[in-house]
């Protein structure tokens, strides 16, 4: 059974810092991996989706990497801003079907 | 494109009553819809997967007679919480996926259910 773990569970940084969020998964037979953002009481916003054949994806200040063989992904946020404060979830999709398995999330607080 | 809506966004009901939550794909046909539950400060847990015109597939530990799922059309799925109890209070999120090579799930904004 696929298990997804995110470290740290919570993170507080001053504005302007670069930071890295970690995601690990136990079964490397994945179709893709996706990073989401969730604001309190809201739904999910997709940030980046990395196919299993890709190593990384970039969108603005966000960069996500994938090392499928080691079961790891990182989300790099450059020059963090208070507006980046949210919970970040990673989720992996297995090869068969289109179910997603979510990690526990990292709650990020960026202080002005 | 790929917008998913949920209604209602918030609902408060009394213990023992039933509540229906709707999930709609607004600009695409969703052959598959997923229902998740999220407790405070926890991640999303998949409850069930529904394919249009078929019975839903429930995850282990989810009572299918308590959480009734209907996916009667390619744009609408409903989740009915029957005989709700306070422990059913949670944030319910649906997602929808269209057929084709790109099977990305698109998520709704969620429904906050409070059972008093």
Task: Give an account of the 3D structure.
The complex is a heterodimer of chains A (112) and B (116). Chain A is mainly beta and 112 residues long. Helices cover 0% and strands 60% of the residues of chain A. Chain A is built from no helices and 11 strands. In chain A, the strands form 2 sheets. In chain A, strands 2, 4, 5, 9, 10 and 11 form a 6-stranded mixed beta sheet that branches. A 5-stranded antiparallel beta sheet of chain A has the order 1-3-8-7-6, with no helix packed on it. In chain A, a hairpin with a 5-residue loop joins strand 4 (30-38) and strand 5. Chain A is globular and about 45 Å long. Chain A starts with a strand and ends with a strand. Chain B contains no helices and 11 strands. In chain B, the strands form 2 sheets. In chain B, strands 2, 4, 5, 6, 9, 10 and 11 form a 7-stranded mixed beta sheet that branches. In chain B, strands 1-3-8-7 form a 4-stranded antiparallel beta sheet, with no helix packed on it. The radius of gyration of chain B is 13 Å and the shape is globular. In chain B, a hairpin with a 2-residue loop joins strand 7 (67-73) and strand 8. In chain B, 0% of the residues lie in helices and 52% in strands. Chain A binds chain B through residues 31, 34, 36, 41-46, 49, 89, 93, 98-105, 107, and chain B through 6, 32, 34, 41-46, 49, 91, 93, 95, 97, 103-110, 112.
Q: Give the helix tally of chain A.
A: 0
Radius of gyration of chain B: 13 Å
Low-confidence stretches of chain B: none
Tally of DSSP β-strands of chain A: 11
Continuous helix count of chain B: 0
Shape of chain B: globular
Largest sheet of chain B: 7 strands, mixed
Q: What oligomeric arrangement do these chains adopt?
A: heterodimer
SSE-based structural type of chain A: mainly beta
Strands of chain B, count: 11
First and last CA, distance of chain A = 41 Å
- Measured by DSSP, the beta-strand proportion of chain B falls in over 45%
Major sheet attributes of chain A:
6 strands, mixed
End-to-end C-alpha gap of chain B: 37 Å
Overall shape of chain A: globular
Mean pLDDT of chain B: 91
Radius of gyration of chain A: 13 Å
Percent of sequence in beta strands of chain A: over 45%
Instruction: Report the mean per-residue pLDDT of chain A as an integer.
Output: 94
H/E element string of chain A?
EEEEEEEEEEE
